[in-house]
Amino acid sequence: MITILSLILLSGCNKPISHDSIAQQGQRKSEIKVNQKRWQGRLEKVKVIDQPNFKKAFTTVPNGYDDESMSLQSLKNANQFVVKGQIVNLNSMIGRPLAPETKATIYIEKIISGDKSLENKTIKTVFAGGFARVRDLYSSFGINNPQEVVYYPSETFPIPKIGTQVIMGIKKFRPENIGQKKLYKRFNLNTNNFYTINNPETTFWVKSHHKYKLNNPAFYQEKSQYKFKNIYKLTNRFNQNRI
């Protein structure tokens, strides 16, 4: 009897990944590959607004960031969800005035904190920056045609590449007013599918060369590495998979 029970327990522990899960993983990889090619093709056709002086002035850690209170628990407390996911697709939101945004489709691989119902599902969110018509930017950057489409990057939130794994804090979209609700509705973003990122300039990590790192390049300026020790400790914790 003991031998039989042991075999049952062992077989349960070694349960193989279902064929559906393997099929879904393969389908997602294929989808990512197609989307990467499409997005790269668009980037190659437009001018990228990349001015060194502009970049230097705006690559900063926001003044409101408090490193002393930063920890995994405080990150969990400050967010409806903390998730680990993968970027499946990016879509430009051309026509959004002044502050371009890019719609992102993200597959949720793991819920670090929050309701587990999002696990193994895809959500929509938005990233700062992206494709825009010159007329919709606060400056023409010396381009004469107001209808020309350019790529306008955010210095504190470089848009991660399709296929990148990320860690972030999110919450369900709750429009602040009717105008905001209508604006996002134009891009098929609503309270059912849209989750906003909390503090993307400070608590958003991307996986690069098999390790998570903060997405905002300002954290990697020499002065920042001595000033913001706790967020580096949290980053190391993610890389040691102690979550």
Short description:
The protein has helices at residues 2-13, 19-43, 52-58, 72-77, 178-185, 222-227, 229-239; strands at residues 47-48, 81-92, 101-113, 122-128, 130-133, 149-152, 165-172, 195-197, 204-208, 211-214. With 243 residues, it is of the alpha+beta class.
Can you put this structure into words, describing what you see?
- The structure is a single chain.
- This protein is an alpha+beta fold and 243 residues long.
- The protein is 31% helix and 26% strand.
- The protein is built from seven helices and ten strands.
- The protein has helices spanning 2-13, 19-43, 52-58, 72-77, 178-185, 222-227, 229-239; strands spanning 47-48, 81-92, 101-113, 122-128, 130-133, 149-152, 165-172, 195-197, 204-208, 211-214.
- Strands 2, 3, 4, 7, 8, 9 and 10 form a seven-stranded antiparallel β-sheet that branches. It has a three-stranded mixed β-sheet with strand order 1-6-5, with no helix packed on it.
- The longest helix has 25 residues, at 19-43.
- The protein is globular and about 50 Å long.
- Residues 4-19 have low confidence and may be disordered.
